[in-house]
Design brief:
By secondary structure, the chain is mainly α. It folds into 2 domains: 51 residues, Arc Repressor Mutant, subunit A; 161 residues, Tetracycline Repressor, domain 2, CATH 1.10.357. The chain has 12 helices and no strands. The longest helix is centred in the first third of the chain and has 25 residues. The mean pLDDT is 91.
Length: 248
């Protein structure tokens, strides 16, 4: 079979059955998290909810850590899909910046799935550590990539490298310069600093709302969030020069 045909070959019946079983297991794990919180997740409880023995479940996930990794990666991908859907829904005539629309998609997903949000960003599960450069890292980078693209859209690398981050120490900027290019290091150090600042402002407001800390605002929380995100975007763009002079 030619290589190109092999690469696009349809999965076998066994592979399709396994994929369907994995999806069903992950959905059952999501239901358990929604009912009892992330800390209560266990292979035995998931298996019981599906009418399986835990030994049968081991065929798909040999230990709890493997299930958690697959589940976390799925939630990151679902969140990334929500961000992209929010962007795809922005009409050309909209006066809402695309970055703001993306952050609102992030907020909506978190509010609709607070337990799944807590799995991703809440108290770390005891005894669990995500594998380095594994599926969870890849999925999280997709989310970061969406925000980076919209936050810095229209700016050249030279402009980002010249952004005003004068308050940062040379030691920190040197550390940011040393980050691997396949991760955060794909941006110039000043842009990394601006991105982390912006991310903290987005995520911080969402965390406050998900955990009920801003409930006193009532129905105005979405309005406050949009205002804060618009201000954040303005603050970031204000630090990036409109033009960069060519070296002499």
């Amino acid at each position: 079979m030619p290589a190109e045909e092999h690469a696009t070959a349809r999965p076998t019946l066994r592979e399709r059955r396994r994929a369907a079983a994995v999806r069903e297991i992950l959905e059952a794990a999501e239901r358990q998290i929604a009912e009892d919180g992330p800390a209560a997740l266990s292979l035995r409880a998931v298996a019981r909810s599906l009418g399986m023995t835990v030994q049968a479940l081991y065929h798909y996930f040999p230990k709890r850590e493997a299930l958690v990794t697959s589940l976390v990666a799925k939630e990151y991908e679902d969140l990334a899909d929500a961000l992209q859907a929010a962007l795809d829904g922005v009409p050309d005539s909209s006066d809402v910046p695309r970055l703001v629309a993306a952050t609102e998609g992030y907020r909506r997903w978190a509010m609709a799935h607070p337990e799944r949000f807590q799995l991703l960003f809440g108290t770390p599960l005891r005894g669990y550590a995500a594998p380095a450069e594994g599926a969870t890292t890849k999925a999280m980078r997709r989310i970061a990539g969406i925000f980076q693209r919209e936050l810095f859209d229209g700016f050249s690398r030279e402009q980002l490298a010249a952004a005003d981050t004068s308050a940062l120490s040379p030691e920190l900027l040197a550390h940011l310069e040393s980050l691997p290019a396949e991760g955060p290091g794909e941006l110039p150090p000043p842009a990394i600093a601006l991105f982390v600042d912006a991310w903290g402002r987005v995520h911080g407001l969402v965390v406050l709302e998900v955990f009920g800390q801003t409930s006193f605002i009532g129905d105005g929380q979405a309005e406050i969030f949009r205002m804060a995100m618009a201000h954040m975007l303005q603050d970031v763009h204000r630090r990036i020069p409109a033009a960069v002079s060519a070296p002499a």
